[in-house]
Write a structure and sequence with these properties.
The chain has helices spanning 3-8, 16-32, 43-53, 107-116, 143-149, 187-195, 199-207; strands at residues 36-41, 59-64, 73-79, 91-97, 124-129, 134-139, 152-153, 156-157, 159-163, 176-182, 211-213, 216-217, 230-233, 237-247, 253-261. With 263 residues, it is an alpha+beta fold. Helix 2 (16-32) crosses helix 3 (43-53) and helix 6 crosses helix 7 (199-207). The protein folds into three domains: 3-89, Ribosomal Protein S8, Chain: A, domain 1 (2-Layer Sandwich); 91-167, RRM (RNA recognition motif) domain (Alpha-Beta Plaits); 176-261, RNA-binding S4 domain (Structural Genomics Hypothetical 15.5 Kd Protein In mrcA-pckA Intergenic Region, Chain A). A six-stranded antiparallel β-sheet has the order 10-15-14-13-11-12. A four-stranded antiparallel β-sheet has the order 5-6-4-9, covered by helices on one side. The protein contains seven helices and 15 strands.
């Protein structure tokens, strides 16, 4: 059994398409002996790419999302002779211009409007705010398309323009760390705890396609979460399973969640 076949046994069914895509990136970099640029990747996806790259000693893997600890980052698979530069990641920072004295826009509205233009999530990086101004990262080739097609966020008229990365806002972490004692790490159980809803309501959200696990739709309430999994729940918010902290005296799982609720 090859290393990739062993890896296949340890990924979720929803991740297998991405795993093949990642394998193709690595194979191309190795075969053509040149750097290969990936889409924007979440934490889990970066882990999978790194695992595959580790199987080829002559290749390395670097990522960049515009700032340290960006949730979404583009990856570069490259031979050991190559020294990556920031420009190799082809990132563009975009600023959102809107009548801030008369309107309020939110993170989920921005992401929804961006996806509503027809682009896919993997060509978009993080959305950044200081609670008044808003910016986001995207692939550099998308600038003109987004300027032509992103004209409204909700009911607010907006325009977007490319700006220098030196003018990037300081990212604010609006997550709240929540310490939970859980019966299990089933996704429906953790959703119920994170957003203070019933287990049945959480189960229904998962089964009805309202939940994404690491940006893949997850419809199995019994799916077990692992550390650094990102869960997004439509109408509720999102959270990251930050740590598993052992067991309580009653045998329950102690865990820390970083929760961002929709306001």
């Amino acid at each position: 059994m090859t290393a990739n076949e062993r890896l296949q046994q340890h990924v979720r069914p929803s991740e297998r398409f991405f795993l093949q895509k990642a394998t193709d990136w690595v194979s191309q970099a190795d075969r053509e002996y040149r750097p290969v640029l990936t889409d924007f990747l979440n934490r889990r996806e970066r882990y999978l790419v790194q695992t595959i790259v580790n199987q080829t000693p002559s290749l390395q893997f670097a990522t960049n999302g515009g700032f340290a600890d960006a949730e979404m980052q583009r990856g570069l698979v490259f031979p050991d002779y190559f020294v990556p530069q920031l420009s190799d990641f082809e990132l563009q920072l975009m600023a959102i211009d809107y009548p801030m004295r008369f309107a309020t826009i939110k993170h989920y509205q921005i992401l929804g409007a961006l996806l509503g233009t027809g682009v896919k999530r993997e060509v978009l990086g993080d959305v950044i705010t200081n609670q008044k101004h808003w910016q986001f990262y995207c692939e550099a080739t998308l600038v003109k398309y987004l300027q032509s097609n992103l004209t409204k966020i909700g009911s607010t008229t907006v325009s977007v323009l490319p700006v220098s990365m030196s003018s990037q806002l300081l990212p604010e972490d609006d997550s709240v760390l929540v310490h939970q004692t859980l019966q299990s790490l089933r996704i429906d159980n953790v959703i119920a705890a994170a957003f203070h809803i019933s287990r049945q309501a959480a189960n229904d959200l998962v089964r009805h396609g309202q939940v994404r696990l690491n940006w893949f739709t997850e419809e199995r309430p019994a799916e077990w979460l692992t550390v650094q999994d990102l869960v997004s729940v439509r109408g509720q918010g999102r959270f990251v399973l930050q740590t598993e902290d052992g067991f309580s005296k009653k045998g329950k799982i102690k865990a820390t969640l970083a929760v961002i609720k929709h306001k």
